[in-house]
User: Fold this.
Amino acid sequence: MSMTRFSGRLALQQRVLPNYRAPFFDLLASACDKGLALFTGLPRVDEGITPALKLRVAKYRLGTNVHLFRGPRYLCYQRGLIDWLKAEDPDALVVEANPRYLSTPAAVKWMHARGRRVIGWGLGAPSPQPLSHWERGAGVRVWSRFLTQFDALISYSQRGADEYTALGFPREKIFVAHNSVSLPPESKPDRGPLAVDRVTILFVGRLQARKRVDFLLRACAQMPNSPRLVIVGDGPERAGLESVAREVYPSAEFIGARHGTELKPYFTEADLFVLPGTGGLAVQEAMSYGLPVIVAKGDGTQDDLVRAGNGWQIPPDDFDALITTMKNALSDGTRLRKMGEESYRIVAEVINIQKMVEVFVRALNSI
Assistant:
C-alpha cells in the first residue's frame, strides 16, 4: 500500500453499497487520518443487489432512497444527506457523478459554502441514444452543466475519463481509478503445460438472461475438442439453462452458488474463463488465478482490464463472435498459458483495490 495518505476527514456518498464494494471503502478509510464516513441507501427489491450491512473501518450511515420512475427515466432522491453532512463536518466529499441523483447538487453547495472541495466519481458520461438531434444536444448540456460543480473527477476507466474530457471538463482534474473489487493476489499460480484437447472452461456468476450462458452452452457444442464446461452460480435462469444443456451440451456441470474460498478449486482447475454476457465481477478473481479471459464489452471498465495480451472482448449478444473467439483461444495451449500469466500481472501490479485507494488519495490531495 502506498504511504501517501489523506490528512483530513472524508465523506463519501453512494446510492447503494453493494457487498463487493465494502473492502474498498474500509481500505480507503484506513488511508484517511481523520476517518471516512459513508452515506448510502438501499436498492429496489428487484435490482438484485446484495447490500453490505456493516463496515469494519469506515463509519456507515444508512439513509432513505426515494426511487422515482424506472428505466431511462429513473431518478433517486436521498433523504438525510444534508443532515449527515452537518453531523460529520467533512474536509472533503466524494459523490457519485450521476445527474439522476437529485440530492447531489445540494450536498455540493453545502460543501462549497464552507470552502470545502467535492470530487465526482463515476463511470463516465456515455453519449445518449435519443430519438432526435435535439434530445441528444439537451442530454449533452445536462451532463456538461452537472460536471461543472465538481472540483475534480475520478473515473472508473480511461474511456470514462475521455468522455468527461469531451464534455469540457479539464483533463488535468480527472483521475482514473480502475474499477476493482479485489486485493492483489497473494501468490502466483503454478500452472503446467496445457493440452488443447483437455481444456476446462469456467463461468462464475449469477444465472440471469443477460449473462448469456445459453450462448456459452451452444458455443461449447461447436468446439472441436469438446471442452469441459463448469458453470458456478445460481439464479432465475438455472432451470432453463439446465434444460438447454440436456439438449445441446449434456456434459456441462452446474455447480450451484459458491463464494469466497469455495471458489478456489474451480478457478485452479480452469484453463479459460468466459463471461459471454454483460456484467460480472468474477473476471478479476479469475485473472488472479492466472486465467485468460473472454468477456463481453460493457461500460468501459473491462477495457483496461482485458487486453490483447490476456484475453478477448467480444460484442454482447453476438453468438458468432463468441464461437470464433473461443475457437481461436482454444487453438493454442501455449499462448493461453502466456495470456494467463499476463492476467495475473495486471491484477497484481496495475488493477486492484490498493491501486484504487492510491488514486483516490492522490485526487483528494490534489484539491
Q: What stands out?
A: The chain is about 35% helix and 20% strand.
